[in-house]
Amino acid sequence: MLTKRIIPCLDIKDGRTVKGVNFVNLRDAGDPVELAAQYARAGADELVFLDISATEEKRKTLAQLVYQVAQVLDIPFTVGGGISAVEHVETLLHNGADKVSVNSAAFRNPELIDQIAHKFGSQCLVVAIDARQIEEEWIVHLVGGKQPTTRGLFDWAQEVAQRGAGEILFTSMDHDGTKNGFANQALAQLSELVNIPIIASGGAGKPEHFSDTFQQGSADAALAASVFHFGEIDIPELKVYLQNQQIPMRI
Question: Is 220 one of the catalytic residues?
Answer without folding.
Answer: no
